[in-house]
Amino acid sequence: MFAKPTFIAFTGVDTADTIADMKSLAAHWPIEWGVLVDDDKTDDALFANLEIRRKLLTSSGLKFAAHVCGEQASKIANQPNAATVDLSGFRRIQVNHGFSGSSPDQIENVVRFGRSRGLRSMLQTLTEFPSDSRLDWLYDTSFGTGKTPDRWPSLPSEKGPFCGYSGGINSDNVASVISAIAAPDGAQYFIDMESGVRTDGRFDLAKCEAVCRAVFG
C-alpha cells in the first residue's frame, strides 16, 4: 500500500465566488489552493487579479500558495530587492521564473525572498529532486500544459526536502499516478494539478472534488 499525498494542491483558482464551496471541500480533505499571480496578464482567466486575491485571502480556514509568474517571478529569482508583488495572506510561494531549472544564485535569492516575507518557498525541478531542504520542490515538466511525464522521480530520503509532483494529473489517472510514485508508507509529499481541474478554461470545483474522492475516498 503506497502512501497517499499529504495534501493536494489545486492550482488556478480564478474567482472568489466559490469560497463557501472551497471551504466545504477543505473541511473534508487536505487541500492547498494555488493562485497564479501575474498582474500583467489581466485578460487571462488563469490569473486571479488583485481584487479576487484579496477576497480569497481574507477568508479564513483556507490554505493558499502564490504561484508567481512573469516579471515578478524573474525579479524574485534574479533581483529580489526589486520585486514588488504583494503576497500577504499566502503561506507558500512558487516562483515560476523559467523553464530550464534554477541556478545556485537563483535558489539563494528565492530562499531569502521567501524567508524575508515569512513564506515557505518552492521551485520547479525537471529531473531528480534536489537535496536542498531550505525550500520545497515540485517535479514539473508540463508547466500547465497537461502533459504527463514518462516517469516520476523517487522521493528523497526522510531528511530531504518536501516534494511534490505535477503533470497531467486528473481524477481519471490520479490513482495510477500515486501507484507510479510508489511513496513508501509514512512518506510526506504532495500532488499538484492545474489543467486537470479546469473546464472550458475555468477552475472547476467539481473536478477538484472528484480528485479528492479518487485519492482519499
Précis, in short:
The protein is α/β, with parallel strands linked by helices. It has helices at residues 19-28, 50-57, 70-78, 104-116, 174-181, 205-216; strands spanning 7-11, 31-37, 64-68, 92-95, 120-125, 136-139, 163-166, 189-193, 198-199, 202-203.
Provide the residue-averaged pLDDT.
94
Tell me the name of the CATH homologous superfamily: Aldolase class I
Broad shape: globular
Major sheet strand order? 1-2-3-4-5-6-7-8
Strand proportion, as a percent range, falls in 15-25%
Query: Which parts are unreliable, with pLDDT below 50 for 5 consecutive residues or more?
Result: none
Structure commentary:
The protein has helices at residues 19-28, 50-57, 70-78, 104-116, 174-181, 205-216; strands at 7-11, 31-37, 64-68, 92-95, 120-125, 136-139, 163-166, 189-193, 198-199, 202-203. An eight-stranded parallel β-barrel has the order 1-2-3-4-5-6-7-8. It contains six helices and ten strands; from the N terminus they run E-H-E-H-E-H-E-H-E-E-E-H-E-E-E-H. The protein has 217 residues and is of the alpha/beta class. The chain has a single domain, classed as Aldolase class I (TIM Barrel). 28% of the residues lie in helices and 20% in strands.
Question: What are the SSEs and their pairings?
Answer:
Blueprint: E1 7-11, H1 19-28, E2 31-37, H2 50-57, E3 64-68, H3 70-78, E4 92-95, H4 104-116, E5 120-125, E6 136-139, E7 163-166, H5 174-181, E8 189-193, E9 198-199, E10 202-203, H6 205-216
Parallel strand pairs: 1-2, 1-8, 2-3, 3-4, 4-5, 5-6, 6-7, 7-8
Antiparallel strand pairs: 9-10
